[in-house]
Amino acid sequence: MPASPPTSVEERLFSLTLALMASENGLTKADILSTVQGYSRDYRAGGDNSALERKFERDKDAVRELGIPLETIDSPDRPGDNTALRYLIPKRLYDLPSDIEFSPQEIGLLALAAAVWREGSLSDDSRRALLKLSSRGIEASEPLVGYAPRIRVREAAFAPLQAAQTAKVVVSFPYLKPGEAAPRRRTVLPLALVQHDGRWHLYAQDIDAGATRTFLLSRIVATVVQRPDVEAPEIDTTGAVERSQTELAEVSQRNRAVIETRPETDAAMRLGRRAAESDGTRVVLHFTDLDILADELAGYGPEVLVHEPPALRAAVHRRLLQVAAQHRSEGAARG
């Protein structure tokens, strides 16, 4: 029987999130590695699971970066014992306030959105995981786990880059950087695909530059093409994911934005959640990409005022001027 294909990162994160939401009292690391899809296939009872544990540590950070409140709680009978820590996503944090009501039109839209999800889709791996959890006395809500999303949130470049990374072949693609009038073709050897700040990045050896570079997948503007005519350099990929994540974290730490938000607005709520510092209106954020942050801040309109750095302030100002000019142009055309 052919081996089942490896679980994608998104599927693994989704399975981990559902398992932690479905558990009433939380799961230990051993529970997760031995039962959750994406880990359980490679888990060895009583064996060396250090690679799986590192994967889980990265996944924990990825889940939290997505804004999901993953909590860690001490075992009541073994306080202070890290091996007995339990991980939990409190489902109550996702419950709607009791005073919220929906109009018939809103209910119709919610029903339409729900059609994107498919009921009764519990996989064989997930069923086995639930049985294992039940056998340990861990309560889980099967209906919660029995939903699977059909929405694909990865960029189109993800799958061909993942295939090239696995096959260790060189690829090329057109890459459009902010401020450039046209994309430039980049030829690279993919080393790792990593998620940072909720966005996918490619860590790769740039063939022309002869050095590693990090590319944002959303800036790959056309098809990724394999290049068997270009010899792949011999590169040790051990620790490539960790190196990439470390570099991105260092860039983020160096970049600091000071933003003023209007109280009780969407901007205040969303930016405040990920602020490094906040006093309610003044928010300090760390960021990896100035243009992506400028796009986001411009979308809040008058709800935000950028103080620092000057380059970010100017970038947001340019975007707001472009929006105003476009509205004037559309108004003149209608008149």
What does this structure look like?
With 335 residues, this protein is an alpha+beta fold. It folds into three domains: 141 residues, no CATH class; 92 residues; 80 residues, no CATH class. 39% of the residues lie in helices and 20% in strands. It contains eleven helices and 14 strands. The strands form four sheets. Strands 9-8-7-6-10 form a five-stranded antiparallel β-sheet. Strands 12-13-11-14 form a four-stranded antiparallel β-sheet. Strands 1-3-2 form a three-stranded antiparallel β-sheet. A hairpin with a 2-residue loop joins strand 7 and strand 8. Helix 10 crosses helix 11. It is globular and about 75 Å long.
| Strand residue percentage | 15-25%
Number of discrete domains? 3
What structural class do helix, strand and pairing data support?
alpha+beta
Main-sheet strand order equals 9-8-7-6-10
Sheet with most strands: 5 strands, antiparallel
Number of helices: 11
Instruction: Please mark out the parts with pLDDT under 50 across 5 or more consecutive residues, or reply none.
Output: 116-123, 132-153
Short précis:
Helices cover 39% and strands 20% of the residues. It contains eleven helices and 14 strands.
Key structural traits:
single chain; 335 residues; 4-stranded antiparallel sheet; 14 strands; globular
Topology at a glance:
Elements: H1 9-22, E1 27-28, H2 29-35, H3 50-65, E2 71-73, E3 86-88, H4 104-114, E4 117-119, H5 124-135, H6 142-145, E5 147-149, H7 158-167, E6 171-175, E7 184-196, E8 199-206, E9 211-216, E10 225-226, H8 240-254, E11 256-261, H9 266-273, E12 277-278, E13 282-286, H10 290-299, E14 304-308, H11 310-334
Antiparallel strand pairs: 1-3, 2-3, 4-5, 6-7, 6-10, 7-8, 8-9, 11-13, 11-14, 12-13
Helix pairs in contact: 10-11
